[in-house]
Structures are given as C-alpha cells and as structure tokens.
Write a structure and sequence with these properties.
single chain
C-alpha cells in the first residue's frame, strides 16, 4: 500500500553499490583461496630459484583450471537452486493472493 493509500507496495530495489562490494569481496576470497590452495599443492618447499620450475608451472596451471571449473559448476548449481526457491516463493505469494480474495 502506498503512502496515500491504494496500490501495491513496490518491492525494494537492489543497491548496485552493495552488489558491487559483495561481488568484489567474493572474488577476493576466491583469489585468496585459489592462491593458497594451489601454491601449497604445487610450489616446492625449498625455493632454490627466483622463478617457478616447469613442473611447478604446469601443476599451477592445472590446479587453477580445476579450481575455476569447480567454482563454475558450484555457481551453476547455486543459481539453479536460487531460481527454484524464487519460483516457489512466487507460487506461495500467488496462492496467498488467491486465497485472500
């Protein structure tokens, strides 16, 4: 209901700044976890040279690729679950509206 009566209330609009900040935080966490996991798995314990060795580079390539593939798959599953939840919420609202009249 609006301030002057009548009409349905408008749903709150998403805050683009909050969305951008949240997305940036998520990418920072992703990068930190990826870096930590792949470095621990692939980098030699004793750093004899300034640059990575060939085996370390290929291990890091594979690790990053697998990590990003897994994150993409998780994202798709979460997106599908969110869509299903939103559809269920919409159905509940429609049922409540039809029963309320």
């Amino acid at each position: 209901m609006s301030f002057f009566g009548g009409g349905a209330p408008e749903p709150p609009k998403p805050d683009p700044l909050f969305a951008a900040q949240t997305e940036m935080e998520m990418y920072t966490v992703l990068f930190n976890k990826l870096t930590s996991t792949c470095f621990t798995k692939c980098a030699a314990r004793k750093h004899k040279e300034q640059d990575l060795q060939l085996g370390e580079m290929s291990c890091l390539d594979r690790c990053v690729s697998k990590y990003m593939d897994a994150q993409e798959k998780i994202g798709l599953v979460m997106q599908k679950a969110n869509e299903q939840q939103a559809a269920q919420a919409q159905q509940m609202m429609e049922m409540q509206k039809s029963q309320g009249k």
